[in-house]
Amino acid sequence: MNNKSVLIIDDNPDIGIALKVLCTIHNIDCTAAITPEEGLDYLRTQSFDLVIQDMNFSADTTSGEEGIALFHQLRDIVSDIPIILITAWTHLETAVELVKCGAADYLAKPWDDDKLINTINNLIELGELQSTQRVNASKKQQRINTLRQDYQLCDLQFNSDEMLSLLELTTRVAHADVPVLITGPNGAGKEKIAQIIQANSSCNEGPFVKVNVGALAKEQMEAELFGAEAGAYTGATKTRIGRFERADKGTLFLDEIGNLSLDGQAKLLRVLETGEFERLGGGDTLKVDVRIVSATNADLPQAIQDGTFREDLFYRLNVIELKLPPLNERIDDVVPLANFFLNGQKSLTVAAAEKLNQYHWPGNVRELQNIIKRAMLITTADVLDCDDIDVKVINKPKARTEEASEQEIMQALEDCGGVVSMAAKQLGLSRSALYRRMKKFEIET
Protein backbone atom coordinates (compact mmCIF):
# COMPACT_ATOMS: atom_id res chain seq x y z
CA MET A 1 0.00 0.00 0.00
CA ASN A 2 1.40 3.42 -0.98
CA ASN A 3 2.23 5.93 1.76
CA LYS A 4 0.15 9.06 2.03
CA SER A 5 1.75 11.95 0.19
CA VAL A 6 1.53 15.69 0.92
CA LEU A 7 2.74 18.69 -1.10
CA ILE A 8 3.70 21.85 0.86
CA ILE A 9 3.91 25.20 -0.93
CA ASP A 10 5.32 27.95 1.31
CA ASP A 11 8.01 30.56 0.67
CA ASN A 12 9.34 30.15 4.20
CA PRO A 13 11.78 27.20 4.15
CA ASP A 14 11.42 26.79 7.92
CA ILE A 15 7.69 26.14 7.49
CA GLY A 16 8.42 23.48 4.89
CA ILE A 17 11.06 21.83 7.09
CA ALA A 18 8.80 21.83 10.15
CA LEU A 19 5.90 20.31 8.24
CA LYS A 20 8.14 17.72 6.55
CA VAL A 21 9.50 16.59 9.92
CA LEU A 22 5.98 16.38 11.37
CA CYS A 23 4.66 14.40 8.41
CA THR A 24 7.68 12.06 8.30
CA ILE A 25 7.22 11.19 11.98
CA HIS A 26 3.68 10.08 11.12
CA ASN A 27 4.71 8.05 8.04
CA ILE A 28 3.46 10.63 5.56
CA ASP A 29 5.64 11.38 2.53
CA CYS A 30 6.17 15.11 2.16
CA THR A 31 7.49 17.33 -0.65
CA ALA A 32 8.11 21.05 -0.12
CA ALA A 33 8.12 23.85 -2.70
CA ILE A 34 9.02 27.48 -1.93
CA THR A 35 7.30 29.14 -4.91
CA PRO A 36 3.88 28.69 -6.51
CA GLU A 37 5.53 27.81 -9.83
CA GLU A 38 7.61 25.05 -8.24
CA GLY A 39 4.56 23.68 -6.44
CA LEU A 40 2.49 23.66 -9.62
CA ASP A 41 5.27 21.81 -11.45
CA TYR A 42 5.36 19.17 -8.70
CA LEU A 43 1.60 18.70 -8.93
CA ARG A 44 1.75 18.33 -12.70
CA THR A 45 4.41 15.62 -12.56
CA GLN A 46 3.74 13.74 -9.31
CA SER A 47 0.75 12.31 -7.47
CA PHE A 48 -0.20 13.79 -4.12
CA ASP A 49 -3.05 13.11 -1.70
CA LEU A 50 -3.20 16.61 -0.23
CA VAL A 51 -1.73 20.11 -0.61
CA ILE A 52 -0.84 22.58 2.15
CA GLN A 53 -0.40 26.06 0.68
CA ASP A 54 0.55 29.47 2.02
CA MET A 55 -1.57 32.53 1.26
CA ASN A 56 1.25 34.98 0.51
CA PHE A 57 4.57 34.63 -1.30
CA SER A 58 5.89 38.19 -1.47
CA ALA A 59 7.43 39.97 1.49
CA ASP A 60 5.38 43.12 0.99
CA THR A 61 2.08 41.36 0.29
CA THR A 62 -0.51 40.41 2.93
CA SER A 63 -3.70 40.49 0.88
CA GLY A 64 -3.82 36.76 0.19
CA GLU A 65 -4.34 37.41 -3.53
CA GLU A 66 -1.36 35.22 -4.40
CA GLY A 67 -2.88 32.42 -2.37
CA ILE A 68 -6.21 32.82 -4.14
CA ALA A 69 -4.52 32.60 -7.53
CA LEU A 70 -2.49 29.56 -6.48
CA PHE A 71 -5.56 27.81 -5.08
CA HIS A 72 -7.40 28.09 -8.40
CA GLN A 73 -4.31 27.03 -10.38
CA LEU A 74 -3.99 23.93 -8.19
CA ARG A 75 -7.67 23.18 -8.76
CA ASP A 76 -7.19 23.51 -12.52
CA ILE A 77 -4.55 20.75 -12.41
CA VAL A 78 -6.31 18.39 -9.96
CA SER A 79 -9.91 19.41 -9.44
CA ASP A 80 -10.62 17.35 -6.34
CA ILE A 81 -7.40 17.31 -4.32
CA PRO A 82 -7.89 18.47 -0.68
CA ILE A 83 -6.17 21.82 -0.04
CA ILE A 84 -5.34 23.18 3.42
CA LEU A 85 -4.55 26.90 3.58
CA ILE A 86 -1.81 28.27 5.86
CA THR A 87 -3.07 31.62 7.02
CA ALA A 88 -2.46 34.42 9.47
CA TRP A 89 -5.31 36.28 11.13
CA THR A 90 -4.60 39.26 8.86
CA HIS A 91 -6.16 37.43 5.94
CA LEU A 92 -8.49 34.97 7.68
CA GLU A 93 -11.46 36.34 5.72
CA THR A 94 -9.75 35.36 2.47
CA ALA A 95 -9.16 31.83 3.73
CA VAL A 96 -12.80 31.50 4.78
CA GLU A 97 -13.91 32.65 1.33
CA LEU A 98 -11.69 29.98 -0.27
CA VAL A 99 -13.21 27.36 2.02
CA LYS A 100 -16.57 28.36 0.56
CA CYS A 101 -15.01 27.75 -2.87
CA GLY A 102 -13.91 24.27 -1.92
CA ALA A 103 -10.76 24.47 0.15
CA ALA A 104 -10.73 21.62 2.67
CA ASP A 105 -9.68 23.66 5.71
CA TYR A 106 -7.40 26.46 6.88
CA LEU A 107 -4.45 26.33 9.25
CA ALA A 108 -3.72 29.30 11.48
CA LYS A 109 -0.16 30.05 12.49
CA PRO A 110 1.09 28.73 14.85
CA TRP A 111 -0.64 25.41 14.40
CA ASP A 112 -1.26 22.51 16.76
CA ASP A 113 0.71 19.49 15.49
CA ASP A 114 -1.78 16.86 16.72
CA LYS A 115 -4.76 18.65 15.23
CA LEU A 116 -2.92 19.18 11.96
CA ILE A 117 -1.99 15.49 11.62
CA ASN A 118 -5.57 14.49 12.45
CA THR A 119 -6.83 16.91 9.82
CA ILE A 120 -4.40 15.62 7.19
CA ASN A 121 -5.26 11.97 7.88
CA ASN A 122 -9.01 12.63 7.93
CA LEU A 123 -8.93 14.63 4.70
CA ILE A 124 -6.82 12.03 2.90
CA GLU A 125 -9.13 9.23 4.05
CA LEU A 126 -12.13 11.29 2.98
CA GLY A 127 -10.46 11.93 -0.38
CA GLU A 128 -9.81 8.21 -0.84
CA LEU A 129 -13.44 7.47 -0.02
CA GLN A 130 -14.66 10.11 -2.45
CA SER A 131 -12.29 8.78 -5.12
CA THR A 132 -13.70 5.29 -4.64
CA GLN A 133 -17.22 6.70 -4.85
CA ARG A 134 -16.37 8.49 -8.09
CA VAL A 135 -14.90 5.31 -9.57
CA ASN A 136 -17.99 3.35 -8.55
CA ALA A 137 -20.27 6.08 -9.92
CA SER A 138 -18.37 6.02 -13.21
CA LYS A 139 -18.67 2.24 -13.46
CA LYS A 140 -22.36 2.48 -12.67
CA GLN A 141 -22.88 5.11 -15.35
CA GLN A 142 -21.06 2.90 -17.85
CA ARG A 143 -23.45 0.06 -16.99
CA ILE A 144 -26.43 2.37 -17.45
CA ASN A 145 -25.07 3.64 -20.77
CA THR A 146 -24.52 0.08 -21.98
CA LEU A 147 -28.11 -0.83 -21.14
CA ARG A 148 -29.49 2.21 -22.92
CA GLN A 149 -27.32 1.64 -25.98
CA ASP A 150 -27.86 -2.10 -26.33
CA TYR A 151 -31.48 -2.54 -25.27
CA GLN A 152 -34.91 -0.99 -25.58
CA LEU A 153 -35.84 0.31 -22.12
CA CYS A 154 -39.22 1.77 -23.13
CA ASP A 155 -38.47 5.21 -21.61
CA LEU A 156 -37.98 3.75 -18.14
CA GLN A 157 -36.35 6.36 -15.88
CA PHE A 158 -33.99 5.08 -13.20
CA ASN A 159 -30.74 5.79 -11.39
CA SER A 160 -30.80 3.36 -8.47
CA ASP A 161 -28.51 0.37 -8.07
CA GLU A 162 -31.60 -1.76 -7.43
CA MET A 163 -33.21 -0.95 -10.78
CA LEU A 164 -29.92 -1.18 -12.62
CA SER A 165 -29.40 -4.75 -11.40
CA LEU A 166 -33.00 -5.65 -12.13
CA LEU A 167 -32.82 -4.28 -15.68
CA GLU A 168 -29.56 -6.11 -16.38
CA LEU A 169 -31.28 -9.35 -15.38
CA THR A 170 -34.45 -8.42 -17.30
CA THR A 171 -32.58 -7.81 -20.54
CA ARG A 172 -30.60 -11.03 -20.10
CA VAL A 173 -33.71 -13.18 -19.76
CA ALA A 174 -35.77 -11.30 -22.35
CA HIS A 175 -34.47 -13.47 -25.23
CA ALA A 176 -35.06 -16.74 -23.38
CA ASP A 177 -38.32 -18.36 -24.44
CA VAL A 178 -39.47 -19.03 -20.89
CA PRO A 179 -42.28 -17.65 -18.73
CA VAL A 180 -41.37 -14.74 -16.44
CA LEU A 181 -43.09 -13.81 -13.18
CA ILE A 182 -42.73 -10.18 -12.07
CA THR A 183 -43.40 -9.62 -8.37
CA GLY A 184 -43.72 -6.34 -6.56
CA PRO A 185 -46.23 -3.92 -5.01
CA ASN A 186 -49.03 -2.18 -6.88
CA GLY A 187 -47.98 0.90 -8.79
CA ALA A 188 -44.26 0.02 -8.82
CA GLY A 189 -44.06 -0.45 -12.60
CA LYS A 190 -44.51 -4.18 -13.26
CA GLU A 191 -46.18 -3.53 -16.61
CA LYS A 192 -43.20 -1.42 -17.73
CA ILE A 193 -40.87 -4.34 -16.95
CA ALA A 194 -43.14 -6.60 -19.00
CA GLN A 195 -42.93 -4.16 -21.92
CA ILE A 196 -39.13 -4.19 -21.70
CA ILE A 197 -39.14 -7.99 -21.84
CA GLN A 198 -41.32 -7.88 -24.94
CA ALA A 199 -39.23 -5.15 -26.60
CA ASN A 200 -36.02 -7.15 -26.23
CA SER A 201 -37.40 -10.62 -26.95
CA SER A 202 -37.29 -12.69 -30.12
CA CYS A 203 -41.00 -11.93 -30.53
CA ASN A 204 -40.58 -8.16 -30.26
CA GLU A 205 -42.31 -7.58 -33.58
CA GLY A 206 -45.37 -9.48 -32.39
CA PRO A 207 -48.25 -8.05 -30.35
CA PHE A 208 -48.06 -7.12 -26.68
CA VAL A 209 -51.42 -8.00 -25.14
CA LYS A 210 -52.20 -7.32 -21.51
CA VAL A 211 -55.08 -8.40 -19.31
CA ASN A 212 -55.80 -7.97 -15.62
CA VAL A 213 -56.91 -11.52 -14.95
CA GLY A 214 -57.72 -10.74 -11.34
CA ALA A 215 -60.36 -8.25 -12.45
CA LEU A 216 -62.22 -10.78 -14.63
CA ALA A 217 -65.46 -12.19 -13.30
CA LYS A 218 -65.54 -15.98 -13.25
CA GLU A 219 -68.04 -16.11 -16.12
CA GLN A 220 -66.00 -13.64 -18.18
CA MET A 221 -62.59 -15.20 -17.76
CA GLU A 222 -62.89 -18.01 -20.32
CA ALA A 223 -64.34 -15.81 -23.03
CA GLU A 224 -61.85 -13.03 -22.35
CA LEU A 225 -58.79 -15.24 -22.46
CA PHE A 226 -59.81 -17.90 -24.99
CA GLY A 227 -62.54 -16.21 -27.02
CA ALA A 228 -66.09 -17.27 -27.74
CA GLU A 229 -68.12 -18.35 -30.75
CA ALA A 230 -71.26 -16.51 -31.77
CA GLY A 231 -74.16 -17.71 -29.66
CA ALA A 232 -71.92 -19.15 -26.93
CA TYR A 233 -73.67 -16.96 -24.35
CA THR A 234 -76.43 -14.39 -24.23
CA GLY A 235 -75.46 -11.34 -26.24
CA ALA A 236 -72.67 -13.08 -28.18
CA THR A 237 -73.79 -12.20 -31.68
CA LYS A 238 -70.40 -12.67 -33.34
CA THR A 239 -67.16 -14.53 -32.79
CA ARG A 240 -64.99 -13.02 -30.05
CA ILE A 241 -61.23 -13.32 -30.34
CA GLY A 242 -59.61 -14.01 -26.97
CA ARG A 243 -56.41 -12.55 -25.55
CA PHE A 244 -54.36 -15.69 -26.19
CA GLU A 245 -55.31 -15.69 -29.85
CA ARG A 246 -54.57 -11.99 -30.18
CA ALA A 247 -51.16 -12.47 -28.60
CA ASP A 248 -50.08 -15.20 -31.04
CA LYS A 249 -46.38 -14.73 -32.02
CA GLY A 250 -46.09 -12.10 -29.31
CA THR A 251 -46.33 -11.61 -25.54
CA LEU A 252 -49.32 -12.02 -23.26
CA PHE A 253 -49.02 -10.07 -20.01
CA LEU A 254 -51.20 -11.57 -17.27
CA ASP A 255 -51.40 -8.96 -14.53
CA GLU A 256 -52.58 -9.68 -10.97
CA ILE A 257 -52.29 -13.42 -11.59
CA GLY A 258 -52.55 -14.06 -7.86
CA ASN A 259 -56.23 -13.02 -7.91
CA LEU A 260 -57.26 -15.57 -10.54
CA SER A 261 -59.90 -18.06 -9.39
CA LEU A 262 -58.98 -21.71 -8.94
CA ASP A 263 -61.21 -22.63 -11.88
CA GLY A 264 -59.45 -20.02 -14.00
CA GLN A 265 -56.09 -21.32 -12.85
CA ALA A 266 -56.94 -24.83 -14.02
CA LYS A 267 -57.96 -23.61 -17.49
CA LEU A 268 -54.88 -21.39 -17.74
CA LEU A 269 -52.58 -24.26 -16.76
CA ARG A 270 -53.82 -26.42 -19.62
CA VAL A 271 -53.08 -23.71 -22.18
CA LEU A 272 -49.62 -23.12 -20.74
CA GLU A 273 -48.82 -26.83 -20.90
CA THR A 274 -50.10 -27.51 -24.42
CA GLY A 275 -50.49 -24.16 -26.13
CA GLU A 276 -53.96 -25.38 -27.13
CA PHE A 277 -57.47 -24.20 -26.26
CA GLU A 278 -60.98 -23.96 -27.63
CA ARG A 279 -63.12 -20.88 -27.88
CA LEU A 280 -66.11 -20.89 -25.57
CA GLY A 281 -68.91 -22.67 -27.41
CA GLY A 282 -66.57 -23.94 -30.11
CA GLY A 283 -65.26 -27.38 -30.95
CA ASP A 284 -62.11 -26.57 -32.89
CA THR A 285 -58.82 -26.75 -31.03
CA LEU A 286 -56.63 -23.69 -31.59
CA LYS A 287 -52.88 -23.57 -31.03
CA VAL A 288 -50.87 -20.44 -30.37
CA ASP A 289 -47.23 -19.50 -29.80
CA VAL A 290 -47.27 -16.98 -26.96
CA ARG A 291 -44.59 -15.71 -24.55
CA ILE A 292 -46.17 -15.54 -21.10
CA VAL A 293 -45.22 -12.79 -18.68
CA SER A 294 -47.25 -12.60 -15.49
CA ALA A 295 -47.22 -10.27 -12.52
CA THR A 296 -48.54 -10.17 -8.99
CA ASN A 297 -48.31 -8.23 -5.76
CA ALA A 298 -49.43 -11.31 -3.82
CA ASP A 299 -47.28 -13.74 -1.85
CA LEU A 300 -47.86 -16.76 -4.08
CA PRO A 301 -45.91 -19.28 -1.93
CA GLN A 302 -48.16 -18.29 0.97
CA ALA A 303 -51.21 -18.53 -1.30
CA ILE A 304 -50.14 -22.09 -2.20
CA GLN A 305 -50.01 -22.97 1.49
CA ASP A 306 -53.44 -21.37 1.97
CA GLY A 307 -54.84 -23.43 -0.90
CA THR A 308 -55.79 -20.41 -3.03
CA PHE A 309 -53.14 -20.84 -5.72
CA ARG A 310 -52.08 -23.96 -7.58
CA GLU A 311 -48.51 -25.04 -6.99
CA ASP A 312 -48.18 -26.56 -10.47
CA LEU A 313 -49.31 -23.28 -12.05
CA PHE A 314 -46.85 -21.33 -9.90
CA TYR A 315 -43.90 -23.36 -11.15
CA ARG A 316 -45.16 -23.11 -14.71
CA LEU A 317 -45.29 -19.29 -14.47
CA ASN A 318 -42.22 -18.81 -12.29
CA VAL A 319 -39.38 -20.13 -14.45
CA ILE A 320 -37.74 -16.71 -14.01
CA GLU A 321 -38.78 -14.34 -11.22
CA LEU A 322 -38.05 -10.62 -11.41
CA LYS A 323 -38.52 -8.87 -8.07
CA LEU A 324 -39.42 -5.21 -8.53
CA PRO A 325 -38.71 -3.27 -5.31
CA PRO A 326 -41.08 -0.56 -4.07
CA LEU A 327 -40.15 3.03 -4.82
CA ASN A 328 -39.13 3.75 -1.23
CA GLU A 329 -36.37 1.14 -1.60
CA ARG A 330 -34.96 2.86 -4.68
CA ILE A 331 -35.06 6.54 -3.75
CA ASP A 332 -32.46 7.40 -6.38
CA ASP A 333 -35.20 6.82 -8.97
CA VAL A 334 -37.62 9.39 -7.53
CA VAL A 335 -36.23 12.61 -9.03
CA PRO A 336 -35.47 11.09 -12.49
CA LEU A 337 -39.05 9.80 -12.60
CA ALA A 338 -40.43 13.16 -11.43
CA ASN A 339 -38.48 15.02 -14.12
CA PHE A 340 -39.75 12.55 -16.71
CA PHE A 341 -43.35 13.20 -15.64
CA LEU A 342 -42.69 16.97 -15.78
CA ASN A 343 -41.82 16.41 -19.46
CA GLY A 344 -39.69 19.54 -19.68
CA GLN A 345 -42.66 21.79 -18.93
CA LYS A 346 -41.55 22.62 -15.39
CA SER A 347 -38.55 21.94 -13.17
CA LEU A 348 -37.93 21.21 -9.49
CA THR A 349 -36.14 23.30 -6.91
CA VAL A 350 -33.58 21.57 -4.72
CA ALA A 351 -36.03 21.78 -1.80
CA ALA A 352 -38.81 20.20 -3.85
CA ALA A 353 -36.55 17.36 -4.93
CA GLU A 354 -35.47 16.79 -1.33
CA LYS A 355 -39.08 16.64 -0.21
CA LEU A 356 -39.83 14.03 -2.86
CA ASN A 357 -36.85 11.99 -1.66
CA GLN A 358 -37.98 12.15 1.98
CA TYR A 359 -41.53 10.92 1.31
CA HIS A 360 -42.24 7.19 1.85
CA TRP A 361 -44.30 6.64 -1.35
CA PRO A 362 -46.87 4.03 -0.30
CA GLY A 363 -48.45 4.32 -3.76
CA ASN A 364 -45.10 3.88 -5.53
CA VAL A 365 -44.50 5.25 -9.04
CA ARG A 366 -48.21 5.65 -9.73
CA GLU A 367 -48.55 7.97 -6.72
CA LEU A 368 -45.50 9.97 -7.78
CA GLN A 369 -46.97 10.46 -11.25
CA ASN A 370 -50.25 11.69 -9.75
CA ILE A 371 -48.47 14.07 -7.35
CA ILE A 372 -46.48 15.61 -10.20
CA LYS A 373 -49.55 15.85 -12.43
CA ARG A 374 -51.43 17.68 -9.68
CA ALA A 375 -48.54 20.07 -9.03
CA MET A 376 -48.32 20.93 -12.71
CA LEU A 377 -52.03 21.69 -12.86
CA ILE A 378 -52.23 23.99 -9.85
CA THR A 379 -48.85 25.72 -10.05
CA THR A 380 -48.50 28.63 -12.48
CA ALA A 381 -44.75 29.05 -11.98
CA ASP A 382 -42.26 27.29 -14.21
CA VAL A 383 -40.45 25.88 -11.19
CA LEU A 384 -42.08 23.64 -8.59
CA ASP A 385 -41.03 24.48 -5.05
CA CYS A 386 -41.39 22.56 -1.81
CA ASP A 387 -44.89 23.87 -1.09
CA ASP A 388 -46.11 22.70 -4.51
CA ILE A 389 -45.40 19.05 -3.68
CA ASP A 390 -48.56 17.82 -1.93
CA VAL A 391 -47.11 15.08 0.25
CA LYS A 392 -46.75 14.93 4.01
CA VAL A 393 -43.26 14.00 5.09
CA ILE A 394 -43.39 12.20 8.44
CA ASN A 395 -40.52 12.70 10.86
CA LYS A 396 -38.73 14.94 8.40
CA PRO A 397 -35.37 15.85 9.93
CA LYS A 398 -35.19 19.54 10.72
CA ALA A 399 -32.26 21.28 9.09
CA ARG A 400 -29.91 22.99 11.52
CA THR A 401 -29.43 26.64 10.78
CA GLU A 402 -26.81 28.61 12.60
CA GLU A 403 -28.18 28.20 16.13
CA ALA A 404 -25.25 26.10 17.40
CA SER A 405 -23.92 27.56 20.62
CA GLU A 406 -20.29 28.34 21.41
CA GLN A 407 -20.16 25.36 23.77
CA GLU A 408 -21.64 23.00 21.15
CA ILE A 409 -19.13 24.18 18.54
CA MET A 410 -16.16 23.79 20.86
CA GLN A 411 -17.31 20.31 21.89
CA ALA A 412 -17.80 19.25 18.26
CA LEU A 413 -14.36 20.54 17.30
CA GLU A 414 -12.82 18.65 20.22
CA ASP A 415 -14.70 15.45 19.29
CA CYS A 416 -13.47 15.76 15.71
CA GLY A 417 -9.86 16.58 16.50
CA GLY A 418 -10.21 20.10 15.17
CA VAL A 419 -11.34 19.01 11.73
CA VAL A 420 -13.84 21.70 10.75
CA SER A 421 -15.55 19.72 8.00
CA MET A 422 -16.25 16.82 10.37
CA ALA A 423 -17.45 19.13 13.13
CA ALA A 424 -19.77 20.89 10.71
CA LYS A 425 -21.30 17.55 9.71
CA GLN A 426 -21.76 16.57 13.38
CA LEU A 427 -23.54 19.86 14.07
CA GLY A 428 -25.68 19.66 10.94
CA LEU A 429 -24.12 22.81 9.50
CA SER A 430 -22.35 23.67 6.28
CA ARG A 431 -18.66 24.44 6.63
CA SER A 432 -19.21 28.09 5.74
CA ALA A 433 -21.97 28.36 8.38
CA LEU A 434 -19.69 26.85 11.00
CA TYR A 435 -16.88 29.24 10.05
CA ARG A 436 -19.26 32.17 10.52
CA ARG A 437 -20.21 30.93 13.98
CA MET A 438 -16.55 30.34 14.87
CA LYS A 439 -15.70 33.88 13.81
CA LYS A 440 -18.56 35.25 15.90
CA PHE A 441 -17.34 33.42 19.02
CA GLU A 442 -13.64 33.97 18.12
CA ILE A 443 -12.99 30.23 18.19
CA GLU A 444 -9.68 29.10 16.78
CA THR A 445 -8.76 25.61 15.55
CATH superfamily of the largest domain: P-loop containing nucleotide triphosphate hydrolases
> What's the shape?
elongated
Number of domains: 4
Mean pLDDT: 88
What is the CATH topology of the largest domain? Rossmann fold
Question: Could you characterize what this model shows?
Answer:
- The protein is of the alpha/beta class and 445 residues long.
- It folds into four domains: 4-131, Response regulator (Rossmann fold, 3-Layer(aba) Sandwich); 154-325, P-loop containing nucleotide triphosphate hydrolases (Rossmann fold); 328-388, Helicase, Ruva Protein, domain 3; 406-441.
- It is 47% helix and 13% strand.
- It contains 18 helices and 14 strands.
- The strands form four sheets. Strands 2-1-3-4-5 form a five-stranded parallel β-sheet, sandwiched between helices.
- Strand 9 (276-278) and strand 10 form a beta hairpin.
- The longest helix is centred in the N-terminal third of the chain and has 38 residues, at 113-150.
- The chain is elongated.
Summarize the entry for a quick read.
With 445 residues, the chain is an alpha/beta fold. Helices cover 47% and strands 13% of the residues.
